[in-house]
Design goal:
single chain; eight-stranded antiparallel beta sheet; about 600 residues; alpha/beta
């Protein structure tokens, strides 16, 4: 959630810190701040609101320095206000922190007993005072940080600087992402590579339990117990253009329209192959997948909806039982483990705390056949799974996920085909037909994007509504869930989704002239039943907005608005039908004037429970 940028260089690092924070705005935040060391000592600037407000403060004060740490905060402990904003200070040192310190209350009580005064409501201030306390006996800042973090419980990525040691920054991580950026005359650290590509592509990804000391010319890494370690240096392939808006108004709009390319990149590994291979999921995949007894999918939010779609595919096409769990719930209930279960975790960032914890819980129960579907190859989730599939969607900056979702669906469909083939449920002719359909996906999604002008007209009608009901059946019910989620995330319209057959079991009571009903209506075996459900809505005066296939023969009438997708796409239809729902949410939010890319109260990478 929060974002960290740190720098030790032979030049003024303030522009680098601020630009890094701007690149991390997508993660979600409510305040920002930085701390610098220069000839005048330690200086701290903080503001509530956007990075632009912090930038204005910096420019007004003409702040500069060669060593600095900066932060964007998403409130967990204490309301958004300047005194709760990072960095927090203690006796000449400053700390920024991403994560949650679970044992902050006993630590706070202990430190108060040692004479420390707390000025904020945050758990982070505990870290500042704890490091300061350790410095009373520790020989240097790195040792003090190591000794301090050894006492912390929870998740953290921290960066610390000290006024009396002006050419050094110490960082540490446990459960929250943190990486180093390297040049010949500077060292940097950040939560995300996007914050550092402005200055370097040389990256070192820290592991849980790592502490690193950064100086201008070099760095060292040690474990919490002091054991020195080396981590490989990699070159980031993140393009600076990929994290710029270009000609689009918002990142969400850009990412919606990037979906054909994102899908093409994700499916590129198929090449011109005439068969589907288990090796798409890793060198050991065939051995791990061939006698799988069931699939357990664990995810949060939009990724959870992708898992719900996949359940229909896996059971219908591969003939394998599938359960889908909300990650934040899974490890808090008694479940029945089976060592033949394939545990599939899904996350855009690969740093979602609930999903990581659920994976560790599943592994602790003896389920070692693990596969992740993720968009970030260097992420924690990728490193902790036996198998992995990288979706290659490119950076997704908008908080409301779009291209990550469709590429996750593509990956899950490939997994379905692999398992179907391993279980002798995919003959040569069917395999060829499936490969043709998958390869055509980018063009099919591009055609669905052409509905934008008509959807823009619909959005004007929606903009004054306060509630909406989404309906779908079968594998399109999760698409209705995703459409409702997108609308509520960025337009703040209350939206719910139901299986259309459930209307008469409660939701029909909500339907009136002020409640628009959005239906996902592909031309499949459930279409006639769906039409009957929609008639129930019209009989109660509800206004219908229907996304139908070209050959469904659904026609507009009084109170019934219909948009036809260019083609029916069979089992892969969910990937097409979600696109107009994304566009609808985006354009409704535009009309309502909300902050599309950074909706209130939400964060992109939820790295705390």
């Amino acid at each position: 959630m929060c974002g960290i940028v740190a720098a030790v260089a032979d030049r003024n690092v303030v522009p680098i810190l601020l630009e890094g924070l701007r690149k991390l705005e997508y993660r979600g935040y409510d305040s920002a701040g930085l701390a610098l060391i220069n000839e005048g000592g330690l200086h701290r600037l903080r503001s509530v609101g956007r990075v632009a407000e912090l930038t204005a403060q910096v420019e007004a004060s003409q702040a500069a320095g060669n060593t600095g740490i900066a932060h964007t905060r998403w409130a967990t402990h204490g309301v958004p206000c300047e005194r709760n904003a990072h960095p927090h200070v203690s006796h000449g040192l400053a700390v920024v922190h991403n994560g949650i310190i679970e044992n902050h209350e006993p630590l706070r009580a202990y430190l108060k007993g040692e004479g420390y005064t707390f000025d904020s409501d945050t758990d982070t201030e505990v870290v500042a005072h704890l490091v300061s306390h350790e410095l009373k006996t520790a020989p240097d800042l790195l040792t003090a940080v190591r000794q301090a973090v050894a006492q912390l419980q929870g998740a953290y990525a921290i960066a610390v600087l000290r006024e009396s040691d002006p050419e050094r920054v110490v960082v540490a991580r446990e459960g929250a992402p943190l990486l180093l950026g390297l040049t010949d005359d500077a060292c940097y650290a950040a939560s995300d590579a996007s914050a550092l590509v402005q200055v370097t592509r040389r990256m070192v990804y820290l592991e849980n339990g790592d502490c690193a000391e950064l100086l201008r010319s070099h760095y060292t890494i040690a474990r919490v117990d002091g054991t020195p370690v080396d981590r490989p240096e990699t070159e980031s392939h993140l393009s600076a253009d990929a994290i710029e808006l270009g000609h689009y108004r918002h990142f969400m709009q850009k990412e919606i329209f990037e979906q054909p390319v994102a899908l093409a990149n994700t499916l590129e590994m198929l090449g011109a192959a005439r068969s589907i291979q288990a090796g798409l999921f890793g060198a050991e995949s065939e051995a791990l997948l061939k006698d799988v007894g069931q699939v357990l999918i664990i995810a949060c939010g939009t990724s959870y909806h992708a898992g719900l779609v996949a359940r229909y595919w896996l059971e219908a096409i591969a003939g394998i039982p599938c359960a889908v769990e909300v990650a934040s719930e899974y490890r808090y209930r008694e479940s029945v483990p089976d060592p033949r279960t394939l545990v599939v975790t899904i996350s855009q960032s690969g740093e979602t705390a609930d999903t990581l914890a659920a994976l560790q819980h599943a592994k602790a129960l003896g389920m070692s056949r693990t596969l992740c579907i993720c968009n970030v190859p260097e992420s924690s989730l990728v490193r902790e799974n036996a198998l992995r599939f990288i979706t290659r969607a490119g950076p997704e900056i908008g908080v409301a996920s779009t291209k990550a979702f469709t590429t996750q669906l593509a990956a899950l469909y490939l997994l379905t085909l692999v398992l179907a083939k391993l279980r002798s449920r995919l003959g040569p002719e069917a395999e060829a037909a499936e490969l043709h359909a998958v390869r055509h996906l980018p063009m099919a999604v591009a055609s669905a994007l052409e509905l934008e002008p008509e959807i823009r007209v619909w959005s004007e009608r929606f903009s004054m509504k306060q509630h909406a009901l989404f309906l779908g059946r079968g594998r399109h019910y999760p698409i209705a869930l995703e459409g409702a989620l997108k609308l509520k995330e960025i337009s703040y319209i209350h939206a719910e989704a139901y299986p259309a057959g459930e209307l008469k079991h409660g939701p029909l009571a909500l339907v009136d002239r002020e409640m628009p009903v959005i239906a996902v209506a592909p031309n499949d075996v459930l279409l006639e039943k769906l039409k009957s459900n929609l008639q129930e809505v019209r009989a109660r005066g509800g206004e219908l907005y229907v996304f139908a296939d070209a050959d469904s023969e659904m026609k507009e009438s009084d109170g019934v608005h219909v948009l036809h997708l260019p083609e029916h796409y069979g089992a892969l239809s969910p990937l097409l039908h979600v696109v107009p729902l994304q566009l609808l949410a985006y354009h409704v939010a535009l009309v309502r004037g909300t902050d599309v890319d950074k909706p209130r109260n939400l964060a992109k990478s939820v790295t705390v429970e």
